[in-house]
Structure prediction request, 155 residues.
Amino acid sequence: MDKVVGLPPLTSSERREVARLRRTIRDEGWALSRGCVAVDGDHVDVRYTAGLTRHHGHPELIVVGGHLPRERDILTGLAAHVSSGARLEPCWVTFGSRRLALVPVDEPEVLWLTHLVYAAYGHPVCALQVVGPDEHGRWPWAGGDGLLLGDWPFG
Prediction:
């Protein structure tokens, strides 16, 4: 059974999700996962990739909170870009008409199901957070709503 130090045993639904992620990664090269994680004492919704590290040598991608419309489409589009051989670094990106930032995640433990998936392969996991402005056009580092999991890397 999968086990991560410091976490309670997996529920049956979590075991099924890890198995689903492993199958999808095997068949497609990457997968999407969705869950709820504790960050700074708050529980927030997240959607993130699994498989980019193992199959593409690329950081996983994560969206935190629900303020980014079409988060699934954005992650799928960016992951497909990586699957085609592109390498994403911390930077500004444009997805459709939206301007987004990719920010390195300081504590990628929030992608804990991805860590469980990789435990079988011995791969460390790092991640880039896909960040967008809130509904008022403000970015998290400028006092807008939203949670930033790393330091703002751009000058």
User: Anything to note?
Assistant: The beta strands are 31-39, 42-50, 60-64, 91-95, 98-104, 127-131. Residues 105 and 150 are 5 Å apart (CA to CA). The first strand starts at residue 31 and ends at 39. The chain has one domain: 34-142.
